[in-house]
């Protein structure tokens, strides 16, 4: 080949005429033809032949021809064996695409074709029929008027070649181009990896001169050429297109694409009013000031705002602590106290005679909008008592009595800060006082499982972070019920551990057995994933052998000591939990060695069973090491006895009066009645809790360190989002916050719920790490900086998914971060580069703005905080638009509003006002939109202002949910702009982005198409995207426009050579992410193109027209088949365990039989696993692809080698859009090439046996 000019190959007799660059000369036919090849620039070359070989050859030798005026010749051996030699001129240059090398002549000439890199290949030719095939053979078709030749390539891999007309697509390694003689189009042989490949070609005529196209086609016999877009390709077909028809098809596809693009853009621009709005903003261009956002200053300001908000909540809690401690100080315990309090379960309940039940007096409940319209009493609190506790226990009655004084403080706090929601006091005795009062409903078993002492806010406030080693006796004496109680005890202890704690579990008999062997000798963080992992392994414990407690104690002390020295643990306090049915010794020598005299490690002993023979030893061990002893005889005793250790660990804080403010990670407390009632209507609420411990101040008990309980209040995460000015973060920008453990408090990518019938909590929703949503930060630079509470900046390229994860936007984000003082949280802000880094200020008068805000089609983002309407009860019923109007007119001086945001809202209202009259004129013109194909026009600005116009009646809308509160992705939310706004912002200015909305169903059955375009203030990248406009039209209307355009042709007689109606081709319209908008098969609408035309999509990826982007989802839910087990449920649910334990009451009198005989029979009902598989959803990590088109590709033709044919296609971009028209040959089926899907693949982890010592290490498998 000799680029760049069009090239042809010619044959002349030997000797040739004087050579010129680009000529190729072939010797005359004969038994020993001589051939001369002239090579492409940089300089003309000649090849001369010398006797073969010049001397005996060895592998790798290079031989030069005799000296003389002619260029030297080089013979290079071509390993591996068998070896052939190929010849190049001396000195040789590196091979380039198109080089062809021939071996020396002979009576049976052999030809060697050397391909361009990556590796040289050889072909050999033998007469037909060939001998038995070996690698490297070249086979020719039998002689005839139109012989076909097949070239089979040598290793390393078989390749296949296909033919296209000149000019070819951009050359790639391995392309070789041959031009037939005459004026007919040149032919290209193009390599098509990775499938097995062959070469087919028609030989050039023996005589020079042009050959007419019909004669050339005739010579090819049944192998007619089917062409799409000029793609010349021999296909074994009874039908084919002549050269003129190929050209007609090429012109036709361009014509169709151009006609459809012009038509649909005209419709979109006309009905959206995009040109009018762009013009209006241009008129104000000189009056606005564009500012670059200072990310660091912004994040510091936001952190300051959040700090003030958090401080108000913590001050409310502090007032509750002071009131509670003062009330207890004045109270004297009365064992005979009779006090009628409002029991949250019994209030408003009557007996059969109509009388109120005891503790169930009348309690007025009124729906309150601030509490999500739940019926509450904002004057009083009520009290919940756990089911397993007695309502009139003297300790509970006395606690309820003195805590009544908190009612005044509850009400006062709510008056001071009307944004407060639930306030409460959780007593160490077990009762729970909640404000405002609300009725609690038991479950179907009559049980309320809620115990405030098990909640994270209680545990974190009551104790300091701790390192815990749990020792479980699995000797032979622990068989039966004792082992079941021991497992339940371990599970209950795990419930009391939080994210700031570290633990491990060791089972012992005569040997040590780590419950998780891969965590041998270290502690792990007590997050939910690790605790659940250990719980699963508890079922594998079984009792046998002799208990050697001394070995276990030595291991536990050594582990705690080593872990403490790493600096990775809690550092505050350490404990060993011993669960056994007895100890034969006090093991004072071990304690003297490791723990005395400082006694830094507390020992808590749990005696399992009713025997008291070894109780003294266990009591001594606990008391001698500042711990606590308790005996657990039944499953019902487990929870209450486990709680006792918390009081002991809280003593240092009580004695020192350390009222530390504790903030929990984000969580959903579905056990509370308000959460249960909201779940069906609005979904569960994500919140954080601020809590503080309450201590006894009485002098006689102060030295003992008595914990009275914990007070707290909830802060919904949506309250944090209200402090964030979304309009300053840009279209793709967002704010996020994490805890000191790296867990997400708020982030747009956090998905705590999943759909299955109704929304449910994901099991690990509260421990989603920042690195799992910002996964592009492979080195955790951003996460570690924020966990360490630093202030700074970080940048990286990110891949953000939109539209239910089906599409991806690739951009570069700048991250700014700092800590929030007084809390364990850090705040981050992400700003996308380009238009996301700029903000502009417009200025209009209040009168102008108010006038244009009065238009009925204007609305504002409900979740944005233009004015704070939560501060005063009379403002809570106002919409944000109403609040702005009353604020600007001075009717509500107490309203607190964002003046800067309101000023920009007024500016957008004025600039966008003319579009309302424009839309109205279109709607009134009956001749326009007569078929009602366009249904809705909409507009959104960067201030959250929206305008909507309906061209049809509301009842006629195809998509009733569009732009409503149910359609979360297409409206302004607290954490993101509408989907159509975000996608339009990344499109080329002036063009429209079209898409079919995805439904949550398995099959996408959408019947509408959305089109939108961005409005920029300036014509450069620094211009902020000030607004986006668009329309929604019927899918049927959109598709009809496409089919009409595809029937157009440019012929003078009006007879089209080819159209999408032909059965030989399939026509598709796809978007820039590969989803089908139009197909001849309507059922394929909305599907990914690769699922329908896998071979074509694979070729588009190979050619670079589309790009595959690999994405990861670390919050996915995967369906798994698990063996169903009734025992697991009863083990982990203390109340089910409680009811199951009732069976044992009948056998308590014959304990000896129960332990060894009857127990085995009875207990089998409790622990037998049902041997059946059950399909469940479980958290998992997945990898899945997304696809994006290459913007520089306007049109592409391609050919695909299938089993026994070649499939050709043309892809043409639709002008001013994100769409592509794809025309595919329908006569060749590529069943051997599988479809390309977007289905996620679960990531499996290998279990690593190593010494884990990282703060949040976890075993993944």
TrEMBL record:
Major site of localization recorded for this protein: membrane
Pfam family, one: VGCC_alpha2
Domain annotation VWFA: ranges: 467-649
Subcellular location: Membrane
Sorted UniProt keywords: Calcium, Calcium channel, Calcium transport, Disulfide bond, Glycoprotein, Ion channel, Ion transport, Membrane, Metal-binding, Signal, Transmembrane, Transmembrane helix, Transport, Voltage-gated channel
Family membership noted in the UniProt record: Belongs to the calcium channel subunit alpha-2/delta family.
Protein name per Swiss-Prot or TrEMBL: Calcium voltage-gated channel auxiliary subunit alpha2delta 3
Taxonomy of the source species: Eukaryota, Metazoa, Chordata, Craniata, Vertebrata
